[in-house]
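#dry-run=false #mode=assembly
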Amino acid sequence: AQSVTQPDIHITVSEGASLELRCNYSYGATPYLFWYVQSPGQGLQLLLKYFSGDTLVQGIKGFEAEFKRSQSSFNLRKPSVHWSDAAEYFCAVGVRDMRFGAGTRLTVKP
Amino acid sequence: NAGVTQTPKFQVLKTGQSMTLQCAQDMNHEYMSWYRQDPGMGLRLIHYSVGAGITDQGEVPNGYNVSRSTTEDFPLRLLSAAPSQTSVYFCASMSRNTIYFGEGSWLTVV
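#status=ok
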């Protein structure tokens, strides 16, 4: 059965520090992979996506993610976090029936 | 180009009432889906459709019904509302590699 796991429910980082959010999945074939961000009371904004080609994907707002087939992972990274990055982040996986992880809430300390 | 349109945006129901959340897209996408979002649980797939006349169950289909008579419309029916169905509902349509979300419908069942 398809599943998406975001192991970290809540992460706190200092402004300017680097960030890595983890995403692991279980899927029958290589799926499409997405990262979304959601601020409180808002809809979901697409950060980046992967479906083939280069396994390092660049997204908006300085985010990148790396697809590792052997580890069934698609971790999101940012070299220097800004206070405005505080939000909830969702990994999504699938082809037609997209499944989402439970989310990781990011807090940024000044 | 309106994208994905959901109505209503807010609704309060009494336990046992039925209602339909409407979803329409004007992008001629074959794939459409419904999600519910609850705190700490991310987005969970309720039902999805891969084309007119074809629907399938997602992760949490119980208590919900869908139909897809046209490519454009994918309504979600609550047959007999329960307090456990209090949630935010998102409709989505999908092209080959991009998901488009509606703005969400906030549903409260009392």
